[in-house]
Design a protein that fits this description.
The longest helix has about 55 residues, at about 190-240. Mean pLDDT is about 85; it is low at about 1-5 and about 15-20. The chain is extended and about 95 Å long. The protein has a seven-stranded mixed sheet. The protein is built from five helices and eleven strands. The chain has helices spanning about 5-15, 55-65, 65-70, 95-100, 190-240; strands at about 20-30, 35-45, 75-80, 85-95, 115, 120-125, 145-150, 155-160, 160-165, 165-175, 185.
Length: about 240
């Protein structure tokens, strides 16, 4: 079994191979870098223990496979909810194709994803069929509730199930057919424009902060001068009275 599949199994296995809920979020930053965050969750009854806390149980399970996570340069923390809890694994990539080529967590719905880079765009689509739900399969977790979210700083051509502005969501469950496809096309010009806009906004923010600091400094100076003048006049008046 390759390391990519092992990574997915690591956390799901510790929560039992059935009923594993996955929440994946991928954010494309204005500079083209990508932040990946994947939460693998299970019902809180899995974590009921008189001897250990939820965090300790998660640590015990992850520690056994920590070498693989470290090899793929992942960090993790805890997700502690009212109904579901588990682990959130996260990592940063140089660009969107670097993410799809090296992420260990986009193989839980398709074994292989194809990311093609040209001078003008990145085009991502599934290279294999969707891994259908299988409650009796021992070599793959029964992922009956998967939400895969990609957040962009601009609009893109895609076939997401849901859209909210420039946030695109693909959903998979036990009824998803094997021929369900994934498609996303990102313009490099849009990335360039988003980066330039981000840099301009940062420059504007820096300029505004500088102006505000100067303005506040002037106000403080004026107040200080007024206070000194008032004190001087009071001092002078007191001298005259004596």
């Amino acid at each position: 079994m390759n390391k990519l599949k092992i990574i997915v199994l690591i956390i799901c296995t510790m929560f039992v191979l059935s009923g594993c809920t996955v929440r994946g979020e991928v954010t494309l930053n204005p500079d083209g870098t990508v932040e990946e965050s994947v939460s693998v969750l299970a019902n809180n009854r899995i974590f009921e223990s008189d001897a250990y806390s939820k965090e300790q149980l998660i640590d015990f399970a992850v520690e056994e496979h920590k070498a693989v996570l470290d090899f793929k340069k992942y960090s993790y923390d805890y997700v502690l909810g009212d109904d579901l809890s588990g682990a959130r694994v996260y990592k940063t990539y140089d660009n969107i194709c670097d993410y799809f080529g090296n992420s260990a967590f986009n193989q839980y719905v398709y074994k292989y994803m194809d990311c093609t880079e040209t001078d003008d765009y990145y085009e991502i689509k599934n290279a294999t069929n969707y891994i259908t739900y299988c409650s009796n399969c021992s070599d793959w977790p029964a992922l009956d509730d998967v939400e895969y979210k990609i957040v962009l700083p601009f609009s893109a051509e895609q076939n997401a199930d849901e859209t909210d502005g420039t946030t695109y969501v693909w959903k998979y469950d036990e009824n998803t057919p094997s021929d369900k496809s994934f498609y996303l096309r990102i313009s490099k010009d849009d990335i360039k424009d988003a980066h330039e806009e981000y840099l301009q906004n940062e420059e504007n923010k820096k300029t505004r902060n500088t102006i505000i600091m100067i303005f506040v400094g002037i106000i403080i100076l004026v107040v200080l001068v007024l206070v000194l003048i008032k004190l001087y006049k009071k001092h002078k008046r007191n001298k005259l009275e004596y």
